[in-house]
Specification:
Length: 240
């Protein structure tokens, strides 16, 4: 922390870091001094985001990765290990929605896509990056869930199932990793103004903004080492 930035010397990996919530989180972590690796499926989006962070004085690299593909995640982890030798912060943010039909009309392929990205992908990333955290003596895993993982979501049952599952995964992994000084936090935002959220009938100005979730991540990863927030529910002040 020679430059006064609390995350100097740390390496952060943010999935889905090229836009929306993930990009806001990546910007904040870079601002705090971390070397940030963002990943996603769109190379052009990653390049633009990484360049934007660099132009604002941060260190950021974009790496193509599909979190629903095990070999893709393992390749990302191998790259991070080879180039940076460590991972201190893992933000599992990559996710896709699905809010248009009742479950009985949902195609099996759509169910697989939602669950594989929102839940299986988190498992893949934890499996790939935790060994580096253990070797480094600790770290932070932040899983971006949703209030849909706490409440019913008609016409979005698959999305809700993925987030309920993510919450349960987070609680359990937190207990598994505490002895390694790895803190696991799940953040459950309400309505957020991103491309993912359904906006029909909502006032975007009253919705949470990506910067609001990034602010919570900033709080979590700079928390004093003897404690951690296991779950955070984040709601807009006024209903949108």
């Amino acid at each position: 922390m020679e430059d006064g930035k609390p995350l100097t010397g740390r390496v952060a990996v943010v999935t889905g870091g090229g836009r929306g919530i993930g990009h806001a989180i990546s910007q904040d972590l870079a601002e705090l001094g971390a070397r940030v690796v963002i990943c996603g499926r769109s190379r052009s989006t990653l390049d633009i985001a990484a360049r934007n962070i660099a132009e604002n004085g941060g260190e950021c690299e974009g790496v193509h990765c599909d979190v629903a593909n095990l070999s893709s995640v393992e390749s990302l982890a191998a790259h991070v290990r080879r180039k940076y030798s460590r991972t201190d912060i893992l933000v599992n943010n990559a996710g896709i929605g699905g809010f248009s039909s009742p479950l009985y009309e949902l195609q099996p392929a759509d169910w697989d896509t939602i669950l594989n990205t929102n839940l299986r992908g988190v498992y893949y990333c934890i499996r790939a990056f935790v060994p580096m955290m253990i070797a480094a003596g600790g770290g932070d895993i932040v899983n971006i869930s949703s209030l849909a993982g706490k409440n019913p979501l008609p016409n979005g049952a698959a999305y809700a199932a993925s987030k309920w599952g993510l919450n349960g995964l987070s609680y359990s992994v937190a207990e598994e990793l505490r002895s390694h000084s790895i803190r696991v936090t799940v953040i459950c935002p309400g309505s957020t103004n991103t491309d993912l959220s359904p906006h029909a009938g909502k006032n975007a100005a009253r919705m949470l903004q990506p910067s609001d979730i990034a602010h919570i991540v900033r709080m979590v990863v700079t928390q004093a080492p003897q404690s951690f927030a296991s779950e955070i529910l984040l709601r807009p002040t006024q209903k949108p």
